[in-house]
Amino acid sequence: MTAFDHRKYRPAPAINLPDRQWPSRTITRAPRWASVDLRDGNQALLEPMNVGQKQRLWALLVKLGFKEIEIGFPSASQPDYDFARWLIEAKQIPDDVTVQVLVQAREDLIVRTFEALQGAKRAIVHVYNSTSTVQRERVFGLDRAGIADIARQGAAMVKREADKHPECEWTFEYSAESFSNTEMDFVVEVCEAVMDVWQPTAAKPCIINLPSTVESSTPNVYADQVEYFATHISRRDALILSVHTHNDRGCGVAAAELAVLAGADRVEGTLFGNGERTGNMDITTMAMNLYSQGIDPELDLSNPDEIIAVTTECTGIALHPRHPWFGELVYTAFSGSHQDAIRKCLHQQKEDEAWQVAYLPIDPKDLGRDYQAVIRVNSQSGKGGVAFVLERDYGLVLPRWLQVELAQVVQKASEAVSGEIDSASIHALFRQHFVADSGALALQGYQIRHEGGHDAVDATVDEKGVSCQLRGEGEGALSAFINALMRYSGRQINVVDYSEHAIGTGTDAEAAAYVQLNINGQRYSGAAFDHDTVSASLKAVLSALNRARAAGGSDVLAA
Ligand SMILES: CC(=O)SCCNC(=O)CCNC(=O)[C@H](O)C(C)(C)COP(=O)(O)OP(=O)(O)OC[C@H]1O[C@@H](n2cnc3c(N)ncnc32)[C@H](O)[C@@H]1OP(=O)(O)O
Ligand SMILES: CC(C)C(=O)C(=O)O
């Protein structure tokens, strides 16, 4: 074998479940969430959280609406023990929140765990042992019966300790760790053994948790395993079926979603998927997936900045900019066709209708993101993005032909800097190339008279400081001015297109005018602004002439 040799590996065995039901089901409500950030997330950190960090993350989890929170492994470490004590002694656990703690099926650890929980009103004690073939054979050196015994004894010890403290409302949870790498008939056998000890009922159920401790198959196989379990375990009504997926193959969320279809009631996971190796199942992603389907996720994720700040501070792990739903770049379109589609859809989206915006699966405003971030311009962007930015930030509604021309200018500038062009730079490029105020031709003054059904204009235009007196007639001020320019310069000038709009409202409103001229067979565009619409239109004409002048390199009027 060479170093990189796939023959070293075997495919995960599939489950024979010909009448599987999960593929034809849909998710219609949020599962019961259990956060394991403070335990599974914590145990995977380079530097596990101290009590202060745990306190901050706890406060966030409660604020987001988690009702079941695994707070640690109190028998394993002093900070976890101290944190449990602080929660209880400082009365930090809201009435509707239940703390959960993890422990191995080992007597000394179980005893210490119950010590840590003294005085709690309600708690979930979560005991586990590994059931998979490889763990049986290579870690524990036990056969099936030996592994089942560990589970049975662990369950009995948990029950014994709980019985000493009837003042607390206990819930028992058992995890067949490495469930997804265990033979299904054996998992059912072990869980039956645990339930024989606990004697759960529909009124007082236990939690049976089915982890894909290491994700090693496609999510459909995991869903088959969960459905197998759900349909082969006795007393299904006396247990809450919980799943706990990891993300080794990048499908932690998908596996949990399919598991819910397959009958899971409860999902364990962490914020942004922090956890062992490639992480736990990401609750924020799964909850937002539900939200985007019109389902209440039963978690308040409306303030991502706070969630990101607290989790980053507590885990030391930064959020990837493309993290689903919450990454800095996920509501940003750089490419031209996406920008164009977003701009058109946003224009048509009505307040009271269902969200229908291409490339934006949810309204970024729901997560406190504004449309500022939606469209950013680089060399991959087209006219849509450029137009969007100018309209959003400067109130300029460019006609299509001008969008096309400006986009070419912006693209060149972006290529030159090999990167993003911000809104102010786009605006500056627009002014520099299409607006006359710094050009060679400038309107000094004009007068318009209505004569015999026509307009006559007398205008003073400077070209490079040389003043020229122009006179012309036409239908309206614009065509009279064009007529004057043609007479003076001897050039053939036609207006190909013209548009104008107000910027702002009230007495401060400015007029924007955009014109495209055909000058001796060549098209040139220009734009101008003025408090007076006629002035704006005449200046826009001079802007276009300035472009012609710059392109031809010769004077227009003095030529
Ligand atoms: C998939 C998961 O995430 S499971 C949770 C894993 N999380 C953690 O382990 C974090 C906290 N754990 C720890 O700090 C330590 O493991 C402790 C303090 C709990 C225990 O430490 P230690 O007793 O020193 O040893 P260690 O964890 O290596 O224990 C291994 C022993 O426990 C046994 N064991 C491991 N898991 C279990 C279990 N769930 N139930 C019963 N016995 C177990 C092993 O077979 C091994 O036995 P051996 O010593 O006879 O060979
Ligand atoms: C203890 C169990 C639930 C676990 O963390 C896992 O299997 O990943």
Automatic annotation (TrEMBL):
InterPro entries registered for this protein in UniProt? 2-isopropylmalate_synth_dimer, AIPM/Hcit_synth_CS, Aldolase_TIM, IPM_Synthase, LeuA-like_post-cat, LeuA_allosteric_dom_sf, LeuA_N_DRE-TIM, PYR_CT
- Residue ranges, annotated region (Regulatory domain): 437-559
Q: Where is the Pyruvate carboxyltransferase domain?
A: 31-305
Q: Which Pfam families match?
A: HMGL-like, IPMS_D2, LeuA_dimer
**Chief site of localization:** cytoplasm
Keywords for this entry? Answer: Acyltransferase, Amino-acid biosynthesis, Branched-chain amino acid biosynthesis, Cytoplasm, Leucine biosynthesis, Magnesium, Metal-binding, Transferase
Q: Which GO terms describe its molecular function?
A: 2-isopropylmalate synthase activity; acetyl-CoA C-acetyltransferase activity; magnesium ion binding
Record field: catalytic activity = 3-methyl-2-oxobutanoate + acetyl-CoA + H2O = (2S)-2-isopropylmalate + CoA + H(+)
Sites binding Mg(2+) sit at 40, 244, 246, 280
Q: What does the record list as GO biological process?
A: L-leucine biosynthetic process
Keyword Disulfide bond (UniProt): no
What are the required cofactors? Mg(2+)
Q: Does the keyword Heme apply?
A: no
Broad class of enzyme this protein falls into? transferase
Q: What is its EC number?
A: 2.3.3.13
General function of this protein: Catalyzes the condensation of the acetyl group of acetyl-CoA with 3-methyl-2-oxobutanoate (2-ketoisovalerate) to form 3-carboxy-3-hydroxy-4-methylpentanoate (2-isopropylmalate).
What is stated as this protein's family in its record? Belongs to the alpha-IPM synthase/homocitrate synthase family. LeuA type 2 subfamily.
Record-given protein name: 2-isopropylmalate synthase
